[in-house]
Amino acid sequence: MPRFYVTTPIYYVTDVPHIGHAYTTVAGDVLARWRRLWGDDVFFLTGTDEHGLKVQRAAEAKGVGPQELVDEISQRYRDAWDLLDITYDDFIRTTEERHRLPAQAFMQRLYDAGDIELGTYEGLYCVSCEAYYNADELEGGENCPVHLRPVEHVTEENYFFKLSRYEDRLLEWYASHPDAVRPETRMNEVLGFIRGGLQDFSVSRTSLKWGIPLPWDPGHVAYVWVDALFNYCSAVGYETDPERFAHWWPVDFHLLGKDILRFHAVYWPAMLMSAGIEPPRSMFAHGWLLVGGEKMSKTRLNQISPADLVADFGVDGFRYHFMADQRFGPDGDFSYEAMLARYNSDLANNFGNLANRVLNMAVNYCGGVVPGERADGPLRDAADGAFALMSSAMERLDFAAAFGAVWDLIRAANAYIEDRQPWALHKAGDTAEVARVLGDLLEVLRVVALCAAPVIPNAAAELWRRLGLPGRPEDARLPGAAAWGGLPAGGALEKGAPLFPRKEAE
Ligand code: MSP
């Protein structure tokens, strides 16, 4: 059985979950569910990033201890993912011992390899990014380019990782793994950055306590990014369970936002090489979800919570919107109006109506059971084509195209109803033709439920049940299950209430 290991970034516990975090996590979940349908042995990892100056300061500002703060906010992330039906296999927290001990062993390996040296750091630091900037990268000469807030001038004795030694090795790696960073524009960005020359970077801090102590010099704690990136290895048994680690590593996909590409595509593979561990097979950096043209952030007060949208559109409505509305790659603007319009057109009208009409007619005209006949008409090719298109789009993580193909099939089925007018055939007493036409339409519903299950798992399972199918779509196995003609005759059909009730603007 092929294995498939996919990760989201681990989220900072200084912020509560917003739709930007949910965007990456839902994408990971859709991918994980899709691979499970193919029978892969899937490991889907998410978690929280709990160390560093940012957290230490946030706790001080709230007048609580850092542990109390991280416990509370980490739980908020779990709650958000439970609400969104995220089927993660593991949720790692960097304050856990199962992470701390392997992370220390990893740092020690880099040190023993001779790639870590003591030096003095003098530079400009953005606490919100937990990253250093060069003066020429700042906005208006003094502000962080991401947070538009002043950076801090820092002088500190630090250990440095000799990243400069890895330029050639990284370029070689990417030359022989041209798909390792996707989409292609991001790969070019990474190559440009490496070719521009790499500077050693600091991997420890003495100015704060809230972190993982370096094993050879406990007066220093690990730089939070080094600590955080390593979660991807500690979660799958690095140091503690070599067999398990060998099973899961290298990771198949790191999913991340474009803001943290450099850490993942440059620092991380170089450190892994130093420790003698293979770099990630691939990573995909998506764009930002913008609200009113700007990135969501606490300071801009433009954050939207997943729970607010779930209250209006349901879990499936939420998941569907973010996967279908824009391509996973470029930035995209979020608007409530666009979400409402898409919900009504795609879910209430196209999907909901098709399910409703077909089930109603089949119950009324075919005695409430799946007929044994099929027309094997034009919908057969449409269904095969939709599945093929979806599969290739999913390989590219083009979720919008993948579900676009499924919704094209839905539209084709609605058009087929208009064309064949089963009610007229019924009125004319052509029982055999009614059964054939509805047989095809019911078969389309089955394929739609199966293909849409990764994104709208609840509606898909309900449709599955109403089609008289046993179990859930998740129990089916691709590609066989997508083959035309899999709906058993004689299954009891059920009409049921609308799966996606229409919503009016308030
Ligand atoms: N803790 C680090 C990641 C360490 S991974 C080893 C971090 N955390 S974060 O919470 O600030 O952001 C994590 C991720 O959330 C981003 O890379 C991105 O995937 C997602 N997003 C946060 N805001 C977002 C948007 N506005 N739009 C889309 N995704 C966003 O960075």
Backbone CA Rg: 26 Å
Average pLDDT works out at 96
For the biggest sheet, the summary is: 7 strands, parallel
Taking pLDDT < 50 over at least 5 consecutive residues as the criterion, the unreliable ranges are none
Any idea what the CATH architecture of the domain at 336-482 is?
Orthogonal Bundle
How much helix is in the residues?
40-55%
Question: What descriptors fit this protein?
Answer:
Isoleucyl-tRNA Synthetase, Domain 1, 506 residues, binds 5'-O-[(L-methionyl)-sulphamoyl]adenosine, 17 strands, seven-stranded parallel β-sheet, 48% helix, alpha/beta
Describe the structure.
The chain has 506 residues and is α/β, with parallel strands linked by helices. The chain has a domain at 336-482: Isoleucyl-tRNA Synthetase, Domain 1 (Orthogonal Bundle). Helix content is 48%, strand content 15%. It has helices at residues 19-37, 53-62, 66-83, 97-112, 167-176, 184-195, 224-229, 231-234, 242-248, 261-274, 306-324, 336-365, 378-395, 399-420, 422-427, 431-452, 457-466; strands at 3-7, 11-12, 41-49, 90-93, 116-126, 131-133, 152-161, 181-182, 201-202, 204-205, 213-214, 217-222, 253-257, 283-286, 289-291, 294-295, 332-334. The strands form four sheets. Strands 1, 2, 3, 4, 8, 13 and 14 form a seven-stranded parallel sheet that branches. Strands 6-5-7-9 form a four-stranded antiparallel sheet. Strands 10-12-11 form a three-stranded antiparallel sheet. Helix 6 (184-195) packs across helix 10 and helix 12 crosses helix 14. The protein is elongated, with a radius of gyration of 26 Å. 5'-O-[(L-methionyl)-sulphamoyl]adenosine binds next to strand 2, helix 1, helix 7 and strand 13.
